Amino acid sequence: MVAPTLLANSLRKKCLTVVAGMLSFAGSITMLSCRDTFAEPPDVKTMIREWETAANSVRSLHIQLQGVNAQRAFELAGKVPGPGDQQMIEMPREMEYWLHADDNQERYHKNYIGPSSNGLIPLEFTVVNTKREQRELDPGGVGLNPYDELKINAPAGVRDYEINALRILLNRTASGQPYFSQNKFALLKETKEEINGIRHRALECPGERGIRIWFQAAAPFRISRIELGLRDRNRFGHTEYRYEYQDPHPQEDIPDFPILKAVEISGYDPSGELRQHLRSTVTEWNVNPQLSDELFQIEPDTGAIITDYTTTPETSYIRLADGTHRRLERHELRRSEFLQLSAEVKRSPMNAEEPAVKEKILTAVKPSYWIHIVGIILMVSLLLCVFLFWRHRANR
């Protein structure tokens, strides 16, 4: 009787040991799988430090985007919204953007369908160095169309939606300073959300506009959503930026800066209705390429109009064939006058000295008549001297 009892106790102990080992292994696996779900995110300083490290790794950038901008019809026409005015008009667009972070140089080139006085027409323009130099190419519809115009503005931030979205993602402002140094953010501990099955937390900056940034809890430098204008959204509406990233290959580590896949921008009016929706897909993404300084210089074509808005009043010039500029008079700024002058310059490339493109000489009499006038004056003077001499002799 003793032997069977000892055998049963030994077998029971082995079974209990096996069950305990299995439970311990399962518990460790569960803890590892739920670590990101229940673990508290790092503090704000740690998150910003990780974000700055990823953003600072981008010293230059070349990116191409292609998408569609949908905007409400009545806003394109400049009308006041009425009941049922929610029709969205889609306008395709393509954009190419370059950044040289060391010198704080930016350039972007955009082709898109945009509104004009003649309806929706193709438009094209290039902006260099935070909108100080802006070149517009317009095939027809507004002002001096078709025209090539270079605008020189006072330094100001580019207001393009995609550029603003890229700037925040790169932790930059229009002046090149870190974005977080300009805003005071706090972690919203009570705010948690899953976006596409990934746990997110939010940083908020009440500030003047009200900014909320949603980031992945496991990778703070991966921003998924940004909300701007929350403070006064009941008066002016607000804007949301959404980002999508390409998944890294299983054999590769997550790069310092993730590869952007798409940008989605939504603008809402004070009532919460969608007024504009833009989605752009990244077709080319190149981090830290070699960029030449010539890329950040704009060269308008011959016959282009150049307007300098940094002077008071603004000054306009025309681009000559030899690369110099000639100031335009007020009457030459009229559409018909400028188009005729521009066509002459394009058709017959001339030097700056030639009459068609040189500064006008404002004189009462044309220079070719001066020889005749001087001759007449000398002749009259000679005759007067002879007459006075003759009278003097006659009086004697």
Write a brief caption for the model.
With 396 residues, the chain is of the alpha+beta class. It is built from eight helices and 16 strands.
**Poorly predicted segments:** 28-39, 352-369
* Overall helicity: 25-40%
Computed CA radius of gyration, to the nearest angstrom: 36 Å
CATH class of the domain at 44-295: Mainly Beta
CATH architecture of the domain at 44-295: Clam
Beta content comes to 25-35%
Number of strands: 16
Report how far apart the termini are: 183 Å
Could you walk me through the main structural features you see in this protein, from its secondary elements to its overall organization?
This protein has a domain at 44-295: outer membrane lipoprotein receptor (LolB), chain A. The relative contact order is 0.10. It is elongated, with a radius of gyration of 36 Å. With 396 residues, it is α+β, with helices and mostly antiparallel strands. The chain has helices at residues 2-33, 35-38, 44-56, 73-76, 161-169, 233-236, 335-347, 370-395, and strands at 60-72, 88-100, 105-116, 119-128, 133-138, 147-152, 186-195, 198-205, 211-216, 219-228, 238-245, 260-268, 274-287, 305-308, 315-319, 325-327. A 16-stranded mixed sheet has the order 7-8-9-10-11-12-13-1-2-3-4-5-6-14-15-16. Helices cover 27% and strands 35% of the residues. Strand 4 (119-128) and strand 5 (133-138) form a beta hairpin. The chain contains eight helices and 16 strands.
